[in-house]
Amino acid sequence: MTITLQLTPEDVKALGIAYKYLEHPSMAARLTNFVGLPIERSLKLLPKTWYENLRQGMNRTLLTALESVISPLDSQSGIAAQEGYHKLLAATSGALGGLFGLPAVIAELPMSTIITLRAIADIARSEGENLGDLHTRLACLEVLALGGRTEEDDAAETGYYGIRIALALHLSKVPEKVLEKGILEPSHPAMVVLIAAIAARFGIVVTEKAAAQMVPILGALSGALVNIIFIQHFQDVARAHFTMRRLERKYGPDLVRREYDIFSRAERK
User: PANTHER family this protein is in (predicted)?
Assistant: First the structure.
């Protein structure tokens, strides 16, 4: 007799919540509500040279943060995430950056990224992930990419699985010997391309964050609040992504994908 697995009502509900955050990441909308004007208008306040400085600093920041921040964390899974604690750290970092304007945004980026990745890893661990596994640490980086959507994504209707497949293609070019070591080799060409792809998407959200901080509101308070919005955005995406991975471990990727597609079809009706 063949036994057909079905998601429990609780897991269907969790999948529906994950779908919401993975298909409709709302960083720009949240920032627009905060600053009181469309974030696209705020983007025009950023100098052109800022984008190049951001690109140069992003790749270094991601690699440094991944190995120095996630690796030392306790790899025991199932520990409840301390989301409020990481929001407090983000607010403190943002307040300091808010005191000194745009130049401080680049300077503060490594700290914001470190705090964000710690928060993501904390959620991954709470969803049963083993942080000692390099694939799990790379999945934490994936969250940074999943949180940033481009106009091209919207035009091509590239959703969660599309982005995930694209990143997996980059990862597939990294030799298994490199992955088996359990450590990143940032100089490997395939790893450079993978990190660059993630950094490009993460940069979208960082740019939106910087644009919001350019709007003169309340200095340090503004920086703190923007950083709270920033980290909440990635905590939501992380919870959704690692919920998906938890369900895939429980039911298998194919069944979870079919159930996910049901939400997608229902939304298009």
Answer: PROTEIN ECSC
Rounded Cα distance, 69 and 115, in Å: 9
DSSP state of 183: S
pLDDT digits (tens, 9 = 90+) for 16-60: 999 999 998 777 777 776 666 566 666 666 666 766 666 667 777
- Counting the structural domains of the chain, the total is 1
Query: Which residue range(s) make up the domain with 98?
Result: 9-148+155-268
Question: Tokens 């403190």 sit at which residue?
Answer: 92
Can you state the angle between helices 102-126 and 83-98, rounded to 10 degrees?
Answer: 170
110 in a structural domain: yes
Q: Rounded to an integer, what distance in angstroms lies between the CA atom of residue 200 and that of residue 131? A: 24
In a domain, 140, yes or no: yes
Calculate the dihedral angle through the C-alpha atoms of 216, 62, 29, 267, rounding to the nearest 10 degrees: 180
CA–centroid distance for 225 within its chain: 18
Q: Which residue has the tokens 């627009």?
A: 32
- Cα 263 from Cα 53, distance rounded (Å): 40
